[in-house]
Amino acid sequence: MTVPTDTKARRDRSASAGDALRRVLLVDSLTSGGVGLLLLAAAAPLSDLWGLTALFLRIAGITMVLWGVGLGQLVRQGAVSDSAVRVVVIANWAWFAASVGLLLGTWVEPRAFGSGFIVCQALIVACFAALQGRFLALRRVG
Question: Does the reported pTM lie above 0.85?
Fold first, then answer.
């Protein structure tokens, strides 16, 4: 029995989107974990350069390492559920919003390099969220 071409093409697109989604999740995991380790290892010198407290950088670093490990486990488990991806996308958008709020609020007063770091990492996280959401939609539609 042959599969109709449109159904096969839809399955191929869905599988391709699923593979791309797993790759984006993996890159998110590695990036988050790597930056988190950097923040933990270099909190004191970065604190001076960025105008953010070392404690703040360590907390951010721990959070990022844990996030990276969690995402890595999610990717390693095999098929990633739609609901798990939605949680990841929402969490990434929340991190982006919190980063913007941090810059607009009065909780911290970073120097130019600190503001630059916050903006750059927020934009990277927004890109991850957008790509993850897009590939999830493509995977579902096929």
Answer: yes
Distance CA 65, CA 40 (A): 9
DSSP letters spanning 3-49: PPHHHHHHHHHHHHHHHHHHHHHHHHHHHHHHHHHHHHHTHHHHHHH
Rounded Cα gap, residues 34 and 47, in angstroms:
18
Angle (CA) 77-67-22 rounded to 5° is 40
Mind listing the pLDDT tens digit for each residue in 2-55? 555 566 555 655 568 889 999 999 999 999 999 999 999 999 999 999 999 999
CB neighbour class for 58 (10 Å; exposed up to 12, middle 13-18, buried from 19): middle
